[in-house]
Amino acid sequence: RKEVEQDPGPFNVPEGATVAFNCTYSNSASQSFFWYRQDCRKEPKLLMSVYSSGNEDGRFTAQLNRASQYISLLIRDSKLSDSATYLCVVLTTGKLIFGQGTTLQVKP
Amino acid sequence: DAGVIQSPRHEVTEMGQEVTLRCKPISGHNSLFWYRQTMMRGLELLIYFNNNVPIDDSGMPEDRFSAKMPNASFSTLKIQPSEPRDSAVCFCASSSRTGTLFFGEGSRLTVL
User: Which residues of A touch B (CB under 8 A)?
Assistant: First the structure.
């Protein structure tokens, strides 16, 4: 089983839609959680950290469920510019482990 | 502000040749990471350094791969001899104590 698992998608949604991605992790001792965004042929960039109580940044909401060992990312009112791959990242034993990413394609 | 700087951006070489990738982390960052990304395996951590010291190289695929960090502002990833299955995008990233990773633009390696 992979340490961090994501549905690769692609998720094809119309502009304005709400879309959610989930990610599961295998190590219950994992300490910190993040979502990174990667545009085509570019480097990954931090989108947001994920806090235990859940957190929101504009149209983006991240949540953590430690009991079930998953994190989620919700994007509201999706824009064309949201099209990218979203990488779930987990800090475990001092190492940042990346999921394979979920691809989002927002269409007009 | 300068981000993480990697070179070369693109490298095309023939099987058996030595490949050296270079990285300059963000000034003041004390951790440096080398990742490799392929379609099949996604982003894989190869090795990371804290304060120039290699901490975990368990992700280095085999003895053909080596990495060094002779000082706080420079690191290299070397593949010798290279093989076609080494073709990938190699990213260098650095972080400060806050833990946020900042990636370079990557070195796209093609081994023929």
Answer: 32, 36, 42-46, 87, 91, 94-101
The angle at the Cα of B79, spanning B17 to B5, to the nearest 5 degrees, equals 110
Mutate to test the interface with A, among B34, B44, B101, B102 (most CBs of A within 10 A): B101
Res. B1: pLDDT tops 70: no
Residue A2 · residue A49 · CB < 8 Å: no
Question: Average of pLDDT values for A67-94?
Answer: 95
**B38 to chain A: nearest residue by CA?**
A100
Q: Which residue of B has its CA nearest to A3?
A: B44
3-state SS, residue B85: helix
Q: Are A3 and A95 within 8 A, CB to CB?
A: no
Q: The tokens of B67 are what?
A: 């990495």
pLDDT tops 90 at residue B15: yes
Whether the pLDDT of residue A10 is over 70: the answer is yes
Q: What is the DSSP string of A26-82?
A: S-TT--EEEEEEE-TTS-EEEEEEE-TT-EEETTEEEEEETTTTEEEEEE-S--GGG
Other CB atoms within a 10 A radius of the CB of residue A90 amount to: 24
Residue B59, CA atoms < 13 Å, CB-side half-sphere: 21
How far does A43 lie from chain B, in Å, by closest CA?
A: 5
